[in-house]
Amino acid sequence: MDFRLTDEQTALRESVRDFAREVVAPVIAEHYEQHTFPYEVIRQMGKMGLFGLPFGEEHGGMGGDYFALCLALEEIARVDSSVAITLEAAVSLGAMPIYRFGTEEQKATWLPKLLSGEALAGFGLTEPGTGSDAAGTQTRAVLDGDEWVINGSKAFITNSGTDITALVTVTAVTGTNADGSKELSTIIVPTGTPGFTVAPGYSKVGWTASDTHELTFDDCRVPAANLLGARGRGFAQFLRILDEGRIAIAALAVGLAQGCVDESIKYARERQAFGRPIGANQAIQFKIADMELKAHTARLAYYDAAARMLAGEPFKRQAAIAKLHASTIAVDNAREATQIHGGYGFMNEYPVARFWRDSKILEIGEGTSEVQRMIIARDLGL
């Protein structure tokens, strides 16, 4: 397989790289320090069409594919992960379920705003007491006439409380299957719906310029037509969405890992110790060489998973491999970059301090590393 980029893909990568360096980099440190959401950056990303990259033009998208989104995520994450995860969650978790499973009316209602970046959507799967056990969902929705009545809570939901959040898609127990298991369905809940409460934002270790909240639903009523996809197919739908999302998270992790390489090279050339740049020392050279090795191989892993997905081939195992490997090496590279920077690596004014704080969640979010190993093992027949 040839993983060299086409001219169009190269142009996209370069334009997003320039945007990240010229627009995101100058302002993100202050947003990160103040825990504020970068609305102006998001607005400009919308104008660039980044939120519509993998969607058809008939819905207001750019007519690209999922690999194009991954290229954009990698380049943004080379500078900052808060902005990158905002884009990733808005597209793969927010708009994609509606694009994949929505009715034509639902698509017409929501996609134009979501694909333009004018509005964001959240993905309400995780609950406070379930974590990786999504099948343990406790949130319930009961059909009362022509309305769903929702009660329950969700945790760690990205893009759920911004001024431009339009909706959250929520998984809920809607009945019992013939075998006694829970019937899980997905329901669209617009923001501002009575009974839908967004808690204050979390105090997080990293991703401090992104938006994350706990959500509660107390007799929250929405029209029966807000059911997303077939009743009882909610769990299967979100498994598909998560498989795709793992490729996107892998791309984001590769971007962070490559950003660590970028910053380490820059610092190793500038920092003088004992009369010469520290980059002249073989110990530093080998650290950075190993970091580049890890970023390169992780990039090939997500390229492969994306290629299989776009070819219509099975990709679950490859997506899990890409996500597991990329998140692991992102943590490794962040640690090494911080070590290369010494005391300055512990200062928030240096990007590697953000990278270090942002890297750990990549081994947890959208399926922990342990879950990825379970997926891989099962796909191997174990």
Structure, described:
The chain is α+β, with helices and mostly antiparallel strands. It folds into three domains: 7-120, Acyl-CoA dehydrogenase/oxidase, N-terminal domain (Butyryl-Coa Dehydrogenase, subunit A, domain 1); 122-233, Butyryl-CoA Dehydrogenase, subunit A, domain 2 (Beta Barrel); 236-379, Butyryl-CoA Dehydrogenase, subunit A, domain 3, CATH 1.20.140. Helix content is 51%, strand content 17%. It has ten helices and ten strands. It has helices at 7-34, 39-48, 66-77, 81-101, 104-116, 234-270, 282-310, 316-341, 351-359, 369-379, and strands spanning 120-124, 140-144, 147-158, 165-176, 182-190, 196-198, 212-223, 227-228, 272-273, 276-277. The strands form three sheets. The protein has a four-stranded mixed sheet with strand order 1-4-5-8, with helices on one face. Strand 4 and strand 5 form a beta hairpin. The radius of gyration is 21 Å and the shape is globular. The two termini are 28 Å apart.
Question: Any key phrases for this structure?
Answer:
single chain, 382 residues, alpha+beta, Butyryl-Coa Dehydrogenase, subunit A, domain 1, Butyryl-CoA Dehydrogenase, subunit A, domain 2, Butyryl-CoA Dehydrogenase, subunit A, domain 3, 3 domains, 4-stranded mixed sheet, 4-stranded antiparallel sheet, 10 helices, 10 strands, 51% helix, 17% strand
Provide a compact summary of the structure:
This is Acyl-CoA dehydrogenase. The protein folds into 3 domains: 7-120, Acyl-CoA dehydrogenase/oxidase, N-terminal domain (Butyryl-Coa Dehydrogenase, subunit A, domain 1); 122-233, Butyryl-CoA Dehydrogenase, subunit A, domain 2 (Beta Barrel), CATH 2.40.110.10; 236-379, Up-down Bundle (Butyryl-CoA Dehydrogenase, subunit A, domain 3), CATH 1.20.140. Helix content is 51%, strand content 17%.
